[in-house]
Write a structure and sequence with these properties.
Structural class: alpha+beta
Oligomer: single chain
Largest sheet: 6 strands, antiparallel, barrel
Strand order of the largest sheet: 1-10-13-12-11-14
Number of strands: 14
Low-confidence stretches: none
Length: 410
């Protein structure tokens, strides 16, 4: 409507002034309700053609969209395993810090596993003490065996000396018996040494390995026990947390609630522009937005990035062939907008619906001196008609509360 009124000032109004003062025709006489078309046909036709052209130039070079919002991602509150809720630390909607507990699952099985692992460590420590005693016992048996060996060896040496000096004074059987006994005493020494070596090996190798395994089992059991306490992964706010004690939580089918990270959805907007404007939307373009959660406010923005893919063209692998005709929605060009000034989006609720206008600027191209006069004039006109779109946005912002609260019945 605004474009039509503007174009009528340049077409219909001059046509009427010519009819009225140039041809002397009067309103209500020669120019009546029934003769308007015949009398003002040139102005009306020119007005319609100029309006269509103006609207095309405005909406192509200064694109607009109502699909702009501050998107944000939520983090589901999930345990790593199934369990029954035993304790809750936060309310339905509450602020949490990273690492702060949210709720705890029933943990009797995990606590029992931790206690078993601790007992195994105590058992290994006891075995270390026993092994130290075994070493002392082996040392005692070794001393005893060496003493017996020395005594038998001395007795055998004495009898051999007697037999050498006085053959027949000592029975050969006694000498042989002592020789066999000496070999037995040597075997006792070897057995005592082996027992001591075994005890030392248990202390140096086997029992430390068993203790390390027990400590690893304790650490694993402690990890499983810690998993029963679900903590916040990031700073944020817990929402829709309706969990109650006694409920069963499933990590695949039943989350406990959602965690909205701190700062999520603040600081930038995402806007979807029509595909026909893909050649116009570029990073660095100045834009303006008006959001429903902050009425009667125009927020200066700048386009910081443009996604080079259209989401509707995404292909997912399946068991059927893709039919492009099934992609009924054309999709939009996703652009990221950030405030031109610090704190520009303060007061805009994340997820709020917004209207966005982006404005093409040809100032640098015009100032480069590489264009002809006609093209400069055209580009100046293109930049100038952006003012019309800006006025339309402000008109929308002005009537939005009335349209929503009064005419919309809300």
């Amino acid at each position: 409507m605004f474009e039509l009124l503007l174009c009528s000032l340049l077409t219909v109004l001059p046509d009427y002034l010519y009819r009225r003062y140039g041809q002397g025709k009067r309103l209500g006489k020669e120019i009546t309700f029934y003769s308007v078309w015949f009398e003002l046909r040139w102005g009306i036709v020119a007005c319609l053609m100029l309006t269509v052209g103006l609207i095309t130039v405005i909406f192509y070079n200064h694109p607009s969209t109502t699909s702009a919002t501050a998107l944000f991602r939520t983090v589901p509150i999930l345990p790593e395993a199934n369990g029954r809720v035993d304790e809750i630390y936060v309310s339905i909607s509450d602020e949490v810090k990273q690492g702060e507990p949210i709720f705890r699952l029933e943990s009797s099985r995990q606590e029992a596993a931790v206690e078993v692992a601790r007992r195994q460590i105590v058992e290994v420590d006891a075995e270390l003490t026993v092994a130290q005693t075994d070493i002392q016992a082996a040392e005692g048996r070794l001393v005893e065996a060496r003493g017996a060996y020395q005594q038998t060896a001395d007795e055998l040496e004495t009898k051999r000396e007697i037999q050498r000096r006085n053959p027949g004074a000592v029975a050969v059987r006694d000498v042989e018996r002592l020789e066999v006994a000496l070999q037995g005493r040597q075997g006792s020494i070897d057995a005592a040494i082996a027992a001591k070596t075994q005890a030392e090996a248990r202390i140096a190798t086997l029992l430390p390995a068993q203790k390390a395994s027990a400590e690893a089992a304790l650490a694993q059991a402690q990890v499983e026990l810690d998993k029963t306490v679900i903590r916040a992964g990031v700073d944020g706010r817990v929402e829709q947390f309706t969990l109650r004690i006694g409920e069963v939580v499933n990590p695949f089918m039943r989350p406990a609630g959602v965690l909205i990270p701190e700062g999520a959805g603040r600081g930038r907007l995402q806007a979807g522009f029509g595909q026909i404007e893909a050649q116009v939307i570029k990073p660095g373009m100045v834009a303006e937005v008006a959001c429903a959660s902050k009425p009667w406010t125009i927020i200066p923005m700048v386009v910081t990035d443009v996604q080079d893919f259209i989401a509707s063209g995404q292909v997912r692998t399946g068991d059927t062939l893709l039919d492009v005709q099934q992609t009924t929605r054309p999709g939009t060009i996703l652009a990221y907008l950030e405030p031109l000034y610090e704190g520009g989006l303060d007061g805009v609720t994340p997820g709020s619906g917004c209207i966005a206008n982006a404005y093409t600027s040809n100032h640098d191209l015009i100032a480069s001196g590489q264009l002809g006069t006609v093209r400069k004039f055209v580009l100046h006109a293109v930049d100038a008609v952006g003012l019309v779109h800006a006025m339309l946005l402000r008109l929308q912002v002005l009537i939005f509360p009335i349209q929503t609260l009064v005419l919309g019945g809300h």
